[in-house]
TrEMBL record:
A Pfam family: TPR_10
Protein name (record): MalT-like TPR region domain-containing protein
Domain of life: Eukaryota
Compositionally biased tracts (Basic and acidic residues): 1-19
Region named Disordered: 1-30, 102-154
SMART domains reported in the protein's UniProt record: TPR
Repeat (TPR) residue spans along the chain: 456-489
Keyword set, alphabetical order: TPR repeat
Keyword Glycosyltransferase: no
Listed Polar residues bias regions: 21-30
């Protein structure tokens, strides 16, 4: 359970609970994430606190909590946590008499409300205020929003209160939407020229957008949030600047939910710059935003930028933390830095970060967080082929998760998947299958409250293990299950496309080329329509579809796909990357089959030269390419005779078709 603790400046920082790091994905390359149910409710409740806190414009105490204090939640969870921060102000009714009483009792009521547990009703926090207001409050509580005078200045706050309570209690979101719309209109009437009322309007827009998100109406939320960003003026002071920051972050989250990672990153970056201007470069909240933005770059597989931002967060939290012990925030930074290093192949460095993060969490007695980090430690050891140490780390985490969460929790299943992958790598197939079956038993009957994306990710990872065992039917079956989970989820087109692309690879391996082609065609269409830039994953999928076209003897279409894949991978990876070279090789074979012998020779000469430089002349892969090039040159010297030799070589002797792990198709 989250606790809120007051720091020396009177602000309130979020302290993460024991499971705060648990949802970080095993690998940033294979994470699939949806909004967590219930995230919006807490955010709206916090937003309402701010509306009420700032409604008293007479309270200019320097100890008043900030408009927003950005928390430390993971970007990968996609929770809408940027709406407001942890404010401990009174929740009051909007009557002049109450405001007068509030000024007298401000200190005591803040103190008592700061002890409120997250998710607890605000009714207890109202007691002192309600007593002073007497029966007028009681009679007003029984009113319907429709009974409040449309011209009353109390209407906006009252409608916000009703909308917030309706959402918090899980009631009809459509009704909450109507109330929030009325609140927006009420604040619009009095927002012209008055700073405080403009802030009220901004917060009502944030609530309306959050309700749209809860209804899955993300596109409707975008213009609402764009407006909430336009209204606050930085020159009007800190509260207005941070209101603009809040809008940027929430809009970034909305784009994330829609699968538009590029737009999401742009908004987070804008929010970070605003926050830096207002709070300074070294404020702890700026560090939290740096980490949040770093996680967005991880999702976009932009690891260098993610590393820079994560290091900024780490430096800020070290400066703000204790000189003797690492903070929870620093531990979270180090775990993310470990994931980034892991993705870049810097496994030893990743281990260093994981161990330091584990020590910090252990010193705070966060056992479940330590277990989560142990899983990451096990991943790094497995990448280093230090299998005994990896097994020890996984078993240690497994014991903690079983004790803390039960035998059938998804965190237990995730460790089973890791163990299955490890035993498969060392050739203990029976043990690997046993762990796969244990994990599937949990994923097929998940505990109540298990996020669906965890189940889908589990199916994808187990599918990859079965694929590597050449049990392709079982692998395909699990991918279909994952696809079914996401098929109606908004904003998941890229995720669905990635799953389909992997299904296309498996169909290709099974020799079902027409089905493979059709699946790839569907995946490519989704990638094109997602609105995102052309990523490396898209380039790889194009290459795979090109291979399916070759098998169907659609050579011209294959050449077009290989050429597009070549352009994308040259931009994303550079011309010397193995994936780019593989596409060059495929394109050379296709050009030869089309009779474009000179083009084929030119490409293959480059591939051979580069492979010799990178791999050495004795490498089997280099030798294969050299033989292909020699045959082409010989054929060119005696005149080109149209033959299918190069095409058959491409089909029968292509080393790029290989099983892969995870959701990304690797050829």
């Amino acid at each position: 359970m989250d606790e809120r603790e007051k720091n020396g400046n009177g602000n309130h920082e979020r302290v993460k609970d024991d499971s705060a790091l648990e949802n970080s994905p095993r690998s940033p390359l294979s994470s699939i994430d949806l909004a967590i149910d219930g995230a919006m409710n807490a955010s709206i409740e916090q937003l309402y606190n701010n509306v009420c806190e700032m409604e008293s414009s007479d309270d200019q105490s320097p100890s008043r909590a900030s408009f927003i204090s950005y928390g430390a939640e993971s970007r990968i969870d996609l929770e809408l946590r940027h709406l407001v921060g942890d404010v401990g102000g009174e929740v009051v009714e909007r009557k002049k008499e109450i405001i007068l009483e509030k000024k007298e009792e401000s200190s005591d009521s803040r103190s008592s409300l700061n002890q409120k547990k997250p998710g607890e009703s605000h009714s207890n926090g109202k007691k002192n205020v309600a007593k002073t207001a007497g029966s007028r409050i009681s009679s007003r509580k029984s009113k319907s929003p429709d009974s409040v005078d449309e011209e009353s200045p109390e209407l906006g706050p009252w409608l916000l209160k009703q909308a917030r309570e309706m959402v918090s209690s899980g009631e009809n979101l459509n009704k909450a939407h109507d109330l929030a719309l009325r609140a927006v209109k009420a604040f619009e009437k009095c927002a012209q020229g008055e700073k405080q009322q403009r802030l009220n309007l901004v917060m009502s827009l944030h609530i309306l957008a959050a309700i749209y998100a809860g209804l899955g109406r993300y596109t409707d939320a975008v213009p609402v949030l764009e407006r909430s960003i336009e209204i606050p003026m930085i020159e009007d002071g800190e509260d207005h600047s941070l209101a603009k920051f809040a809008g940027c972050m929430q809009l970034g989250d909305m784009y994330g939910l829609m699968g538009q990672v590029e737009n999401s990153i742009l908004l987070y970056t804008a929010g970070l710059e605003i926050q830096r201007q207002v709070l300074g470069e070294t404020d702890a909240r700026v560090g939290e935003t740096c980490r949040y933005l770093a996680e967005a770059h991880v999702q976009a597989m932009q690891f260098e930028e993610a590393s820079k931002l994560c290091q900024m967060a780490l430096d800020i939290h070290k400066e703000n933390g204790s000189s003797t012990t690492a903070s929870i925030e620093e531990a979270a930074d180090r775990k993310l830095m470990g994931l980034i290093c892991d993705a870049k192949g810097d496994y030893e460095v990743a281990l260093e970060h994981y161990v330091l993060a584990s020590m910090a969490m252990s010193s705070q007695n966060h056992r479940e967080d330590v277990a989560s980090i142990d899983c990451s430690i096990g991943d790094a050891y497995m990448s280093l082929a230090r299998f005994d140490e990896s097994i020890f780390a996984y078993q240690k985490a497994l014991a903690v998760f079983k004790q803390a969460k039960g035998e059938n929790h998804s965190s237990v299943a995730s460790v089973y998947v890791r163990l299955a992958d490890l035993y498969n790598k060392i050739g203990k197939i029976r043990d690997s299958k046993s762990y796969c079956e244990n994990a599937l038993r949990i994923y097929l009957k998940p505990s109540p409250g298990t996020p669906v994306e965890e189940v889908a990710t589990g199916f994808i990872e187990i599918s990859a293990i079965y694929q590597s065992m050449n049990e392709l039917e079982q692998s395909l079956k699990l991918l279909r299950r994952a696809l079914k989970i996401y098929e109606n989820a908004p904003g998941q087109q890229n995720t669905i496309a990635g799953i389909e692309a992997q299904m296309g690879v498996i169909s290709y391996m099974m020799g079902n080329y027409p089905e493979s082609y059709n699946i790839f065609k569907s995946a490519i269409s989704k990638f094109r329509n997602s609105g995102e830039k052309k990523t490396a994953l898209f380039g790889i999928a194009l290459n795979q579809m090109g291979l399916a076209c070759v098998q169907r003897y659609s050579i011209n279409e294959a050449a077009d796909l290989f050429e597009e894949a070549k352009t994308i991978l040259e931009k994303e990876y550079g011309p010397y990357h193995p994936d780019t070279l593989a596409v060059y090789s495929n394109l050379a074979g296709t050009y030869d089959a089309m009779g474009r012998l000179d083009d084929a020779i030119e490409i293959l000469e480059y591939v051979v030269g580069t492979r010799e430089e990178k791999l050495g002349t004795a490498n089997p892969e280099v030798e294969d390419e050299k033989q292909r090039l020699a045959a082409l040159l010989k054929e060119a010297g005696r005149g080109r005779v149209k033959r299918n030799r190069a095409l058959l070589t491409l089909l029968d002797n292509n080393p790029e078709i290989a099983p892969n792990c995870g959701q990304r198709p690797v050829y």
